[in-house]
Amino acid sequence: MKTPRWTRSAGSARTSAASVIDRGAAAVDDRAVMRILPADARAAFAADGVICLRGLVDADAVELLRAATEAALAGPAALFSASGRPLPDSFLWLTQPAVAELLLRAPIAAVAGALLGTAAPRLFYDQIFAKDPGRSLATPWHQDAPYWPISGEALTVWIALDPVDHEGGAVRYLPGSHRDGVLYRPTSHQDRGAWEAVDLPPLPDLDALPPEALREWTLAPGDALVHHARTIHGAGPNTRAGRPRRAYATRWLGDDARWTPGPETMDFPLPVEVRPGDPLRGTLFPEISIAAEI
Ligand SMILES: O=C(O)CCC(=O)C(=O)O
Q1: How many DSSP H helices and E strands does the chain contain?
Q2: What pTM was computed for the model?
């Protein structure tokens, strides 16, 4: 494996964070990727649609991401979607240059690229999931893919910024649920209503499954979960007194990703520079080239 070199693809920078990525050419220690992505991890990801990678990022990165999370949540929101909705918990990389730099430095993109089978994974967006003890809601069962205006292979790298266990709101998965290609109707995370306009079957009753049919991990800060965009998952509320449960998620696209907006799919903080059916590109969706064998 050669040393990965990460550079951003062409596109005009509109924010300081985007400029950081435009300067490109940061290096990551390829041994770190090999250590955290063992040979059988790709087979496990293909079979289960989710894997746990211990210690994906180091303590300094965890501190940086905690600070970025707190800054984002302290508000006011720095970004708004095209429809005027505040986006306090996503696209941190656009407004916080330190986060963009971290995405060049840490082995996150390399892991995404290795699992997506591309030397140039594209960052779709990033998002924080913060659950305050005693005040948080459950994350309903869902797949990510139906919320997204894209087709093609995609995955999430979800990094724990605090210790996480079952009572603290661990993410739970239905292993293998990505494999048959079925998409289920999404649920609004705000009002818990189903998306009426979307012609997809309802999710099976995951709560009726025996606990052993599901998978979850107890995590330390810096550990990561990587899940496929079709893998069904959800999480309980954080019921651990006095302990926050913060996580930083990045969403990554493979080479076959195409722009396929629907009536209810999420919207974005900058004009999207692609037409339906086109590959994603432009300032909003930077490609990080990893010059390494994957
Ligand atoms: O952290 C959570 O509660 C949910 C995470 C999630 O749904 C995701 O990363 O897609």
Answers
A1: 7, 13
A2: 0.88
